[in-house]
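Listing 4. Sequential folding, example run.
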Amino acid sequence: MMFGKLLAAYLIGSVSGSLLLGRLRGVDIRTLGSGNAGGTNALRTQGLKFALGVVLIDVGKGALATWIGLQSEPDTTIALRLALGCGFAAMLGHVWPLFHGFRGGKGVATVIGLLLVLWPLLVLPMLAAFALALTTTGYVGLGSILAGFTMLPAAWWLSERALAIEWWIAGGVVALFLLFTHRVNVQRLFAGNENRFDKARLLARLFGR
């Protein structure tokens, strides 16, 4: 039962929003822009409506996979662990999708889907960290990495004592996973040639005046 749920979660995660919608449009965004099959590259290369569709699918599959892990598990701790495992399996499917040659996105939207099912409140500090980084630096990748690491202290302070260790481990896994999937962004940041959304640097322009 547990293995079946994890496998199903991985297969759900392997359904890439950008590649699915791209086929309907006749494009493969992995050949455009940064080459990443995620929401940011979808926005840059295909526009806002397309990117919103991508994000909805990628968040939805993370939520669905996590929900599957919760089913038929009366023990709260076991249910949480299995749901987290299914959410992580969906993240793996998103980054290395079976249906798309193991070339997918970076997993941020799928993480959000996981949290929306298990702990919606935890999304708020992560989004705050992302927004702060984006509006000051314009770097989406940096914002995503910082959002992932925000999950560590947030999970520690906000979780119930009985489940704190599960969320602490989950926060560490998510943070390191997002750091890994954004490793190219980190390399470009150090090299000084990372892509930047200058229009998003609202705080930088506000305080720069």
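-- end of first protein; second protein begins --
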Amino acid sequence: MEPVPEDIRLLNGAYWLTRLRWIAIICVPIGTYFCGSVLGIALREIPMYTVATLLFLYNVAVLVMLDRAARADREVSPRAVKRIIHLQICTDLILLTVLLHFSGGIENPLVFFFIFHMVIAGILLSPKESYLQATFAVLLFGLLVLLEHKQLLRHYCLTGFVPHCLQESMLYIFGTFLVFTTALYVAVYMANYIATRLKRAERAYKQANVMLEEKDRIKDEYVSRVTHDIKGHLATIQGCLAVAVDRMTGKLEDPEADLIHRAHTRSVKLTNFVRALLRLTQMRLSNKLEMADFSMGEALLNVTGAVQAKAADKSITLNCNIDSSVENVFGNQFSIEEMVTNLLLNAIKYTPANGTIDVRASSGENSVLVKISDTGIGIPKEEQAQVFDEFFRASNAKRAERDGTGLGLSIVKYIVERHGGQIQVESEEGHGTTFNLTLPRTA
């Protein structure tokens, strides 16, 4: 999973705050009604409902600001989003202080809801910024307690919840304020510590990922160059052996002719392997494919026509059924035809004589569906998850055919993914295999 960019992380955090606030907007009026009507706790209901209304209006305003900051026609500014986060936390702290004032002040256990905001600040903001938010919360709460204690601000005792007004006890005020302050700063410290560790791990992961991608690219370039050179030498060897086979067949003693024939056969197979490896490596190195609209039905007819002779050599019936609803697809026709050819040649190779191969194409909602089924040897159930891995060959495939590159299905999967499609395999050992391809019709 790719690390989330800083601007997106902040924007998601800002939206997360608004979602949490909707919960508070619902809970404040419900809690006020329940406490007053059911529990008989004295609360200033009108101010409480007013605070809930202000929360609603302010949350809508924040959402408008966030939507403007995240407009698709310009980049998201981390600084602008941070300002909105600061605004949200500061406003929340002020409204929470007002809410406490009308619901018992220091007597109300909701005072520790300040901690939630400190945790959020520690996650979304820098250590310095989150400690400033903690200091602001301590000053707000301390000012509320001091003004109520000095009777400069009226204190609304939480009658029905506490036996008497605790605001009058200096010891209670001092102890609660000390615990409150300590809890806020500890919460900020812990949230900052965890967030910092996570960010460092994310940066390390990102750097490691970049290094792995670069090493993978270097490996692919190396393989591409080596296989290209090998392919040239093999082509020369294969050409020389082919001439020797043609000219010397019947002139040499049987053992000598057999050696030449075996050398030629091996060179052909090795050349095919090198070509497949080179093709896969080139596709992995290339970031672009020339795409255009083309007829999927025509491409399938081209491929089935090209492999028809090989199927006939094994007395295999090759059927091709294309629905009239099949439309054009957007992609690289050469690659798509190469992909279907690989699947058909695999089916022919592992389908016994007098078997059947069916190619069917139909139209989906926004895609073309291609199904290639055979009556071949199938794939063991426990090995089906690996069939698209490079160099992998099923155990029964190795027994049926000694030679094989194990790259054909890897190339198929890579081509499908480059076109934004999907491929699935259904198989039962001894009863054939079906490959289901889904290719998008448009870009």
